[in-house]
Amino acid sequence: MSTDNFPDYAVGVAHLQKRDKKMAWLIGQIGEVGFCDRKEDFCFLAEQIIGQMLSVKAANTIIARLAALCGGEITAQAVCRFSAEELKSVGISGRKAECMRALAQAVQRGDLDFGRLKDLSDRDITAALTAFKGIGGWTAKMYLYKIHRPDVLPFEDVILLSAYRWLYRTKDDSPAAVKKRAQKWSPYCSIASMFLYEAAERGLLDKEVPRLKDL
């Protein structure tokens, strides 16, 4: 994982360590981490659309096929050249193909300008992206996470939830439970999420977590 960090990373880490003993323990286990995805915004969203409801392996296979179809790089200009049927030929479902084409066409027309989009609030960015049929709240949150918005809570993400259940020794990973816990993390939920993702990435979920009374 990159060492590039969210704005106010050090302040956020200190906040998490002070407010949440379990998160403080996790931070101590992992040390400094960071997140940076340098893909172009359209490419990032196209990959997120493809990856919905698919395994990582299956998604990566389809992404590689799409990149080859586009001449090596997934861009809005390239995607606009293809019909939905042509996009389906690389394994993309019809619904996802239509969503991707609509997104690409909006970029080409100038209706969706990622530079201007980043000047908006989290809520308005989410509204702009979810206006495209096929882009839901989870994909919008992944985009907010990509652009380093500090208080993103992707409670729909299965990897984050698996790490959450492990760290807090709980079976209750309902949105209500995660949101309640995240009140301690806010306004740095993105940084807390980053440590949970890193725990899963490093294979720590088999490690025993101390009980709260032992911390």
SSE blueprint and pairings:
Blueprint: H1 9-19, H2 21-30, H3 41-51, H4 56-69, H5 76-79, H6 84-88, H7 94-109, H8 114-117, H9 122-130, H10 137-146, H11 158-167, H12 175-182, H13 189-201
Helix pairs in contact: 1-2, 2-13, 3-7, 9-10, 11-13
Task: Tell me what the structure shows.
With 215 residues, the protein is mainly α. Helices cover 58% and strands 0% of the residues. It contains 13 helices and no strands. The chain has helices spanning 9-19, 21-30, 41-51, 56-69, 76-79, 84-88, 94-109, 114-117, 122-130, 137-146, 158-167, 175-182, 189-201. Helix 9 (122-130) crosses helix 10 (137-146) and helix 11 crosses helix 13. 29% of the residues are buried. The model has no long low-confidence stretch (mean pLDDT 93).
